[in-house]
Amino acid sequence: MARQAFKYKLYSAERNKRLNRQRVAAGQIWNHCIALHKRYYRRFGQHLSQNRLMARVAYLRNHVRTDWKILGSQAVQDVVQRIERGYKLFFKATRDKSGRKVRPPTFKKVSRYRSFTLKQAGWKLIAPGKVKVGGCVYRFHQSRTVEGKVKTVTIGRDSVGDFWITFSVETGEAAPIKAVTGRTAGFDFGLSMFLTGTDGIEVQMPQPLKTDLKRLKKANRELSRKKRGSKSRKRARLALARLHRRIACCRRDFHHKLARELVQSFDVICIEDLNLAGMKSLWGRKVSDLGFAEFVSILEHHCRKAGSRLVKVNRYFPSSKTCSCCGHIHQELSLRDRTWICSHCGVSHDRDNNAAVNIEREGLRLLAHQAGHRLEEEAA
């Protein structure tokens, strides 16, 4: 079984205020559950079980906080389950993608609480582009048909204030078999050139944040000058949020188009596993503008969808310092050296092209090693 998500934007309407009240109720329930967890631990030194917490919230909805009834019972259960998943990750002492230790769930501002999730009940897809949630019918911009069995429906609000509906579906279809091109490629990430490939491919990214930086600074200045709590400050905040959303959409659109082009051209794509936290500390805003981590995530998605293979080479592999002709490692190479001559064989190298060739070779070696290890396990 495979999971897919279909995300659509809801039409702006007055009835969206009801969705906003449900979102507010979910945020209030979240904060109340966090308070109960903290109080229970202070008194008994133990973790509050999920079933007892659900029973307590159900009692409050029926007798004390009747305004919480605007939110469906399954959405309330999902809030409790989100908190439980957060505590489980914290107890495992795991780390997130950036390497930071996972912290336990904590209080959130209700105004910043984003979404609530419905499962089997509380919603109904009545027609293309129409969904019924809690007795009200909402229209959404349906760009593609919802295919598969819908498992969950998540309704969320972004920073601009627009509501989005996401259908998480389960499909039994396997990944499509793509036409085999027989081509492999290695790619090296860079700041001056976004991607440099082994076949002479060079991809320059438009950098939407740099393009709109003046407008972004002006919007931030206008927001800082407004009086807190005023309507003009709210309008300035929404203008800044719309600008940020437009920049993010431009970046995401470029990443999707580039990833789709790569998976259609190559069967095996080899890239380097980057230390993004270290890169941000050195180059800051430009690394965030290029969005390497987001591109890798999108590339993984398109590779799974098209049947291509994505191989990540270890970040400590000296791809730039290794001569692609003789294999000699040039230890004295610095980041400023864009071209260098191998002291062992005398060949002149472009830093990025040489790194792309080495990344492809190392990725294919890792792929062959994994295939050989798999055959040995099957034979044993």
Secondary-structure topology with pairs:
Layout (H helix, E strand, L loop, with lengths): L1 E8 L6 H29 L5 H15 L8 H19 L23 E4 L4 E5 L2 E4 L2 E4 L9 E9 L5 E9 L12 E6 L5 E3 L4 E2 L4 H4 L1 H13 L5 H35 L2 E5 L3 H8 L1 H6 L1 H15 L2 E5 L25 E3 L6 E3 H29 L1
Parallel strand pairs: 8-11, 11-12
Antiparallel strand pairs: 1-7, 2-6, 3-4, 4-5, 6-7, 8-9, 9-10, 13-14
Helix pairs in contact: 1-3, 2-3, 5-6, 6-9
- The rough form would be described as globular
User: Unreliable runs, pLDDT <50, ≥5 residues?
Assistant: none
Count of individual domains: 2
Strand content: 15-25%
Distance between the termini: 29 Å
Main sheet makeup: 5 strands, mixed
Structural class: alpha+beta
Spell the H/E element sequence.
EHHHEEEEEEEEEHHHEHHHEEEH
Number of strand segments: 14
Number of helices: 10
Mean pLDDT: 84
Sequence of strands across the biggest β-sheet: 10-9-8-11-12
- Gyration radius over CA: 25 Å
| Share of helical residues | 40-55%
